Amino acid sequence: MTFSDDEVLTVKEVASFLKICRVNAYNLFNEKNFPCIYIGKSKRVQKSDLINYINNNLKNNN
Q1: Three-state secondary structure string covering 1-62
Q2: If I label 25, which of 1, 35, 42, 43 is the partner at 20 to 30 A Cα–Cα?
Q3: Which of 34, 3, 28 lies closest to 15, judged by CA?
Q4: Mean pLDDT of 27-45
Q5: Which parts of the sequence belong to the Helix-turn-helix domain (predicted)?
């Protein structure tokens, strides 16, 4: 596992970043292939991983 200076986002921050509601952000975090990490009981995602996830899904849907 490697760490970087990349920003780590909460569910609320992902919802704001993607301009979706928190319920949809929670659903995204619960998807099988979503690259989230646990910090205690809280889920987080690195911003770069989120962007890569979105880009990969866009490529797969075209």
Answers
A1: CCCCCCCEECHHHHHHHHCCCHHHHHHHHCCCCCCCEEECCEEEEEHHHHHHHHHHHHHHHC
A2: 1
A3: 28
A4: 95
A5: 8-57
